[in-house]
Amino acid sequence: MFARKVDAERFDADVRADVSRGVYVDPAAGRVTVNAYGETWRVGRLHADSTAELVERTLRVHVYPVFGGMRTAQVRASTIQAWVKDRAQVLAPSSLRVAYGYLVSTFRAAVIDRVIGVSPCQGIQLPDLPGEDMFIRTAEQIHALSAALAGPGGCPGGYEALPLVGAGTGLRQGEA
Predict the structure, then answer these.
(1) Each residue of 115-154: pLDDT tens digit?
(2) Dmax of the chain from CA atoms?
(3) Half-sphere exposure (CA, 13 Å, Cβ side) for 50?
């Protein structure tokens, strides 16, 4: 395995130091596939049924086809960044963030379990979430809407208060 005795001794000293510090990662542990470890991670989570189904489906459809057969120690940040770029073509930014979050959690658990030494999910650039332009009505517009609901031909039943309640509290239409 080692060409020189000094290299073997250095490796032995490094391993002994890692073991004594409690940070040793067995190289054999990193041979487990992402699919095998991901399933161990997934079934060990405490999720509501609907969330558990979402996690399983997301891993099966978006993560395992690319990473599933890879050994956990083989996955690099560059591989994950390429996956993010590819998935950005088919997933909305918010959905991609969910899928990426499951991948991050899986690799974080692998680090904690000492399957790998460092998570490859560091420094990954995700697409920006689209900002929504908010249209905030003026006080005059709110009062005009309230008056229109109360006036002749308006809605019966006291709905004229709804624009005032919504504007003052931030409640949505169904909540008000």
Answers:
(1) 898 999 999 999 998 877 777 888 898 888 888 887 666 6
(2) 97
(3) 0
Q: In sequence order, which ranges of 22-91 are alpha helices (DSSP H)?
A: 34-43, 49-58, 64-67, 77-87
Query: pLDDT tens across 79-109, in order?
Result: 999 999 999 999 999 999 999 999 999 999 9
DSSP secondary structure string for all residues of 72-111:
GGG--HHHHHHHHHHHTTTS-HHHHHHHHHHHHHHHHHHH
Rounded CA-CA distance 170/142 in Å is 13
Residue 16: how many other CB atoms lie within 10 Å: 11
Q: What is the pTM of this model?
A: 0.66
Compute CA 151 distance to the chain's CA centroid, rounded to the nearest angstrom.
Answer: 50
- Name the 3-class secondary structure at 163: helix
User: Do 160 and 154 form a contact (C-beta atoms < 8 A)?
Assistant: yes
